[in-house]
Design goal:
Blueprint (H helix, E strand, L loop, with lengths): L1 H6 L3 H4 L3 H11 L4 H11 L5 H24 L5 H7 E4 L1 H9 L4 E5 L5 H11 L4 E5 L5 H11 L5 E4 L3 H7 L6 E5 L10 E6 L2 E6 L1 H9 L3 E10 L2 E10 L11 H16 L17
Parallel strand pairs: 1-9, 2-5, 2-8, 3-4, 3-5
Antiparallel strand pairs: 6-7, 8-9
Helix pairs in contact: 3-5, 4-5
């Protein structure tokens, strides 16, 4: 209830809270600063300590802004949202929709990934099924579920994705996945060099695209200025696919696309995620 009341305030007014949020998470709580510093230092080994520190601060300021924008997403109107999020190369997606094809949308935790979810549901004239993992807190899970589905998108538990694809093979769908975080469990993965580190990537999207013969669109979300974003669509791969159980070329293309975007906009990616955490057996 409190979130919804705050969300009704104008976004420029809400941004006045961004500074205090930054001060708390960066200076007082020091939220995962050791993790962020380690990740940035590894990704940019030629950068000086001063440059890493400057990038680190820019990241936390951006994170504070995204926090404000996520709250605003609970009450923002369709008209205001459309004015703040524009689409580039949309004809690529429209062409697939006009042909009656289903497709896979792959993106990353760059820009404002929560607004990206809203944009897909609002802009695309086809049912968007976004893959998600329920939050540990049931209360927060309900809050985010309501926000993420405001503009028509549907959430599908990651564990149910394959069953959903099989069930809807004769229906037109857009499946949206953020696949840049660390895969869970010990299942099959793609190993590559990513941001100067040996990295595992989830191969589920590639296997699903092969199974259902889905074109794959990479979606870049870039902050144009405070409170405004541009979404760009890029064809990553399309059928027919060659199946090879020991090679994942599409996942490799995805890793390169994500890395390129991060290097162009390094303060906008989710560096505080424990992407390279290694657990004991």
């Amino acid at each position: 209830m409190l979130f919804k009341l705050i969300a009704k305030l104008p976004l420029p007014l809400l941004y006045t809270l961004s500074g205090p949020i930054y001060f708390v998470i960066y200076h007082l709580v020091r939220y995962r600063r050791d993790i962020v510093r380690e990740h940035l230092s590894s990704a940019f080994p030629s950068s000086s300590e001063k440059e890493i520190n400057r990038l680190e601060q820019r990241y936390y300021r951006n994170l504070a802004d995204v926090t404000i924008e996520v709250v605003k997403g609970m009450a923002i109107s369709e008209a205001e949202f459309e004015a703040r999020v524009t689409h580039k190369n949309y004809d690529l997606v429209k062409g697939l929709i006009d042909q009656g094809k289903s497709f896979l949308l792959l993106s990353s935790h760059s820009g404002n990934w929560e607004w990206l979810q809203l944009a897909m549901g609002l802009q695309l004239p086809v049912l968007v099924e976004s893959i998600y993992k329920p939050l540990h807190s049931k209360t927060m899970d309900r809050v985010f579920y309501a926000m993420r589905t405001r503009f028509g998108a549907r959430l599908v538990n990651a564990a149910d994705l394959m069953g959903e694809v099989v069930k809807n093979r004769k229906k037109q769908r857009a499946y949206a996945i953020l696949a840049d975080q660390k895969p869970r469990g010990s299942g099959r993965c793609h190993y590559t060099r990513f941001l100067n580190r040996d990295t595992r990537f989830f191969v589920g999207p590639e296997k699903i695209a092969q199974f259902a013969k889905l074109p794959i669109i990479y979606v870049r979300m870039t902050r144009v200025k405070r409170g405004y974003y541009e979404i760009e669509y890029q064809l990553l791969a399309e059928p027919p696919y060659e199946k090879n159980k020991d090679s994942y070329p599409i996942t490799e293309l995805y890793a390169r696309a994500v890395e390129s975007h991060i290097l162009q906009h390094p303060d906008s990616w989710l560096w505080s995620n424990r992407r390279w955490r290694v657990r004991n057996p």
